[in-house]
Amino acid sequence: MRKQQLTTVFMTALIAVAACTGLMLVCGVNPAAAYQMFFQGIFGNLSGFCEIFIKAAPLILTGLGCAVAFKTGFFNIGAEGQFYMGAVTAAWIALSFPQVPGPARMVLALLLGFAAGGLWALVAAVMKARFGISEIIVTIMLNYIALNFTGLAVRTFLMDPAGSVPQSARIEAGAAFKLLMPPTRLNAGIFIALAAVLAVWFLLEKTTFGYELKVVGFNRRAAKCNGISVMKNIVFSAFLSGGLAGLAGVIEVLGVQKKLLEGISSDCGYTAVLVALMASNHPAGVLVAAVGFAAMQIGANSMQRQLGIPSAIVNILTGLVVLLILGKSMFNALYKKTAKA
C-alpha cells in the first residue's frame, strides 16, 4: 500500500474515532469505559467473537452481489428483495419435501435460492437493457414486493400450522446447517461466503468474461465498438448479483434462524450497498468491510447492554465513514498539497 493510501486510511480512522468519542460525550458516557465494553463484546468471549462471522456471512454475499453489479454499471439496490426471495425459496424447499434426504434438500435450497435471487434481479436488468428503464427505481420497487410476498408466505402456505405467529415451522436438523462450534451459532454459511469471495475474484480478475463485465461498466460505447455485448453482460451481472444476495437469504434460513420469519434480513440488503462502496467494489475489500461492519455491530450491542449507549451510534459512524471514503479525493488533494509544500 502506498504512503498516500496509508495517510488516507489513517485520516479516515482518526476522524471516525474523534466523531465516535464526541457522540459518547454527548450521551454522557465515559469514552474509555465505552471502548472497553466495545472490545470486550468482540473479543471477551467465544460466542461474541463467532457472532461476528455469523453476521458477516450474509453481508459478504449481498455485498459481493452489489459489487459485481456496480462493476458493470448496473446499480442494483435490490439486494434486500433478492435476499428475501432466496430465503422464501430455501424455507419452501426445506419444509415442503420431507421425503427428500436432508443434505439433498440443502443443496437444492442453495441452488434454487441462488436462482430465485438471480431471476428477481433479472427483471430489472431486462427492463434496463431492453427499454432503458432505471434499474434503481425497479429494484427498489421489487424490494417492497419481495418483502410483502414474504409476509404473505408466512401467513399462508409457509405458516407454521401449530402456531399463530406469522412465521414458518422450524426446519428439521437434518435439512439445516449443523453448528460448527456449539453452543455458538457459527455454521457453514461463513465458508460459503468465503468461497463466493474467491469465485467472484477469479471471475473478475482472471477470466475474459470478467474483463468484459468491467469494460461494459467503464465505457459501454467502447465495449460495443470492440464487439462486446452490453446487454448480455448487464443481464449476466444482474443474475449473478441477485443470485449471491439470494444465497445470503438461504444461509440465514438454513444456518441461523432455522425458519422463515418477517424481518429476517435485518436490512442486510441495504447495508450491502454501503459494504460495496466501502470496498470500492473489490471482492477482498467486501470481505474486510463486511467483517468490520459486523464487528462494529457486535461491539455496539455490548456497549448498549453494559452502559446504555444507543447502538444507533454505529449507524451514524458508518454513514460518516462512507462519506469519508467517497470523499477520499479530498484527502488525496490535501496529501499532494502537503507533499509539494
Radius of gyration: 21 Å
Could you give a short account of the major beta sheet?
none
Please identify the structural class as seen in this structure.
Answer: mainly alpha
Instruction: Estimate percent helicity.
Output: over 70%
Tell me, what's the shape? globular
Count every beta strand, where a strand is a DSSP E run of 2 or more residues.
0
Textual characterization of the structure:
The chain is 75% helix and 0% strand. The chain has 341 residues and is an all-alpha fold. The radius of gyration is 21 Å and the shape is globular.
Provide a brief overview of the structure.
Helix content is 75%, strand content 0%. The chain has 341 residues and is mainly α.
Topology diagram in text:
Layout: H1 3-26, H2 31-43, H3 46-71, H4 79-96, H5 102-131, H6 135-153, H7 189-206, H8 208-218, H9 220-225, H10 230-257, H11 268-278, H12 283-307, H13 312-326, H14 328-340
Helix pairs in contact: 1-13, 1-14, 2-12, 3-7, 3-10, 3-11, 3-12, 4-5, 4-6, 4-10, 4-11, 5-6, 5-10, 7-8, 7-12, 8-10, 11-12, 12-13
